[in-house]
Amino acid sequence: MNHIINSSYLLNHARKFGYAVPAFNIHNLETIQVVLTIAKELESPVILAGTPGTYSYAGVQQIIAIVESMAAENNQQVVVHLDHHHDFDDIHNKIRAGIRSAMIDGSAMPLKENIAITRKVTELCHYYGCSVEAEIGQLVGQEDDLIIDDVADPYTHPEDARLLVEQTNIDSLAVAIGSAHGLYKSTPKLDYERLQKIAKLVDIPLVLHGASGIPDSDVKKCIELGISKVNVATDLKLSFAETLKSFFLEKPGSTDPREYNQLAKAAMADVVRHKIMTCGSAGRIYSFK
Ligand SMILES: [Zn+2]
154: pLDDT confidence band, cut at 50, 70 and 90? Predict the structure, then answer.
């Protein structure tokens, strides 16, 4: 696993120099190929993320093998990340398989329990040189089997964020400032003031989930105010699915996956290129050398 790294160095570098590392949720061979190819083309650091559902669908060893072989061919160092994982043993098994970046999502728990599980997972992860992201506050919407409809107070409280970071030794923190998972019904209103407060109290990189559908200017503002990792899932799924839908409307008789997947890959490549430019991460791998 020479080309799969943890995310600490990348995120701290991004925080120091005022850009963000994009994290793309991948699902299959095609999404991995597109993200790694465009990241290489634009010389951008990149994180490939998968929810528990994605790893069950595509296979942990299989995802790692595809990423490792492609990164070796491209001469890239790549992060493969566990997005929204909850289970200690599941995280442990995936680290043993070669993953070096994990999110422990205890955000649905009361603060004390969130701190306890996050601390336990962080100790495990650091033993293996795996970096850890935790979450505080809750993002409404749906990401795989994680569905959050109605939360009385979904936002991250800055003081809680400070406590969680102080008591757990995590490497990055996902914050809830008004973004959501899945499709937005209207443009979200982000709480910049809250983000600023958290960034002042917390001395580690911050993570924005649910960035699909947030206007570029708003994402850029979040990066200015302390976001160092921007998660993109829905926009990739949409471009993939929409391309296939229009293809089959036009050519219902087609059966060759190489034909329609090629088009879907081109559409996803545009999304990846656009997100990398928005994050300001293009060309950044040069500054690591
Ligand atoms: Zn998320």
Answer: confident
